[in-house]
Structures are given as structure tokens and as C-alpha cells.
Amino acid sequence: MAYFVVTYEQGPSWVAGRAMREQSQWADHAAYVNRAMYAGRVVLGGPIGDGEVHRALLITYFADPVALQSWIGEDPWIQSGVLGPPSVVALNLLVSFDDLDPVLAKMREMASAG
């Protein structure tokens, strides 16, 4: 299991002038990411930047890049083009906020069990 940083930008189906939660298939995308979070696969995430172009970042925890890419490919926003293809890089976690460490440990435990 490894951590990966995933960054996205709006894709060709993003509707300019609409807020993130007003984009097509928002509820499906949010539910998809939340299921991964509850399964211990998404550690944290959210929009980044100044908002002129929608960008988002996820810190994820997957067995390997192939498993992560498979999960990314099933996201309704990726499939519909609301988000463009993401950038994925490995994260070698060296430090984290002390309150986060027990959370990460529990997520690793849950991910290894299931």
C-alpha cells in the first residue's frame, strides 16, 4: 500500500459559471469519492487554487498505481469529462500532523483488512 497525490483540473464538460456542486453528476462524483474515503482509500482532498480554473487535490492510499488508475477511471466526473485526466505522483509520507497519525494508522489497518 502506498500514498499517492492526485491532482485534477476541470475537463471539457465543465460548465463555466457553475459552481462545483452545480456541475453535472456532482452527487454521483461526491458519493464515489466518499465511498473511497470510508474504505480508507482517500485520506483528504478538495479544491485548490484561486478558483479561476477548477483544480482539486486528493491524497490517496492504494495498493499500487494500477489500482489507483482503475479507481480514477470509474469516477463519474472522469467518465463524463467534467474533470480532465489527473496527474498522479507517489507520496513518501515523512511527516503529518500528530492528530492525523492515528487516523492514517486506522486507514492503513482498514485497507489491509479489506
What is the strand tally?
Answer: 4
What is the 3D shape?
Answer: globular
Mean pLDDT: 91
Highest CATH level, the class: Alpha Beta
Number of domains: 1
Looking at CATH, the homologous superfamily is Dimeric alpha+beta barrel
Span between N and C termini? 12 Å
CATH architecture descriptor: 2-Layer Sandwich
Rg, nearest Å: 14 Å
User: What summary fits the major beta sheet?
Assistant: 4 strands, antiparallel
* Helix coverage percent: 25-40%
Side by side, the strands of the main sheet go: 2-3-1-4
**What is the helix tally?**
4
What structural class do you assign from the helix and strand content? alpha+beta
Account of the protein in words:
By secondary structure, the chain is of the alpha+beta class. The protein has one domain: Dimeric alpha+beta barrel (Alpha-Beta Plaits, 2-Layer Sandwich). It is 36% helix and 25% strand. The protein has helices at residues 26-38, 65-73, 76-80, 100-113, and strands spanning 2-9, 42-48, 55-62, 87-91. A 4-stranded antiparallel sheet has the order 2-3-1-4. β2 and β3 (55-62) form a beta hairpin. The longest helix has 14 residues, at 100-113. The model has no long low-confidence stretch (mean pLDDT 91).
